[in-house]
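Hello Y.,

Per our agreement to keep a running log of every chain we model this quarter, I'm adding this entry. I've kept the format consistent with earlier entries: sequence first, then predicted structure.
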Amino acid sequence: MGKIAFIFPGQGSQYSGMGRELYENYSSIQELFDKIDATAGRSISKLCFEGSEEELKQTINSQPAILSTSIASYEALKQEIDIKPDFVAGHSLGEYSALYAAGVMQAEELIKLVQKRAELMANAPSGSMTAILGLDEEKINTLIQESSPAGIICAANYNTPDQTVISGETAAIEQANELAKEMGAKRVVPLAVSGAFHSPLMRPISEVYAKFVDNADIKQADTPVVTNVDAQETTSEDKMASKMVKQMYSSVYWKQSISYMMEQGVDTFIEIGPGKVLSGMIRKISRDVKVYNVSDKISLEKVKEAFASQVSV
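Predicted structure for the entry above:
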């Protein structure tokens, strides 16, 4: 059997009712959510279990809710199956769940930090983001270059070989959207976001955020974290802290992170947290790896069965 990576989803994976089943089935998860609610100073659990789609879409709500559900899913998995990953990684916000799994930060510390991150991002300078499907990296680079006279623009998320998200000033993004269609993009999907995340426009708020990161209790990772900003493994607390700040205004090198882990021998990915967004992305990056997800009791049972059969072989 090859190596295993745990991966954690980011914004966009939320849904009403997430985490509820785990809460109802595990007393340890109830305690965890109670602790999170007390730390957050509001009921994140109620938001996860009963929040409307509209409420959960808001950055200020979705980030702590997804983080909490991902941490709960990870704890349930740990309780049921004895698996230690060789690597952990998370997509944008998901990197904070990965930090938890790597022992870098405790749940309370992470909730406080992510609430601050969400608050800053919700009030970020205005801008736009668009998902471009069907253009390769070379064409995306051309697209950005040709649209840049209209304003700041960059690739925000390298999700799969076929999907890249661009981010920046609205005029430049609108120009890029039209140009992408002319260049033969399969789909051009403007995203409903409040700012130009993962772009240079986020630098001013990253400087504010840095003060909160500096005051956080960050420890050395006990499992390598493959970080968004460079698709490289990180364990040192100093590097982790600087990358957390840099992540706000840097591209998310997701397909490169998955490729890196595969090059290191990873052949099994377990997506831990709400939804299956990352599982879908990984299948587009490679058909040669096994992908599982854990978000509720049923998906957890499937992973248990899969690993029980592998162990007995």
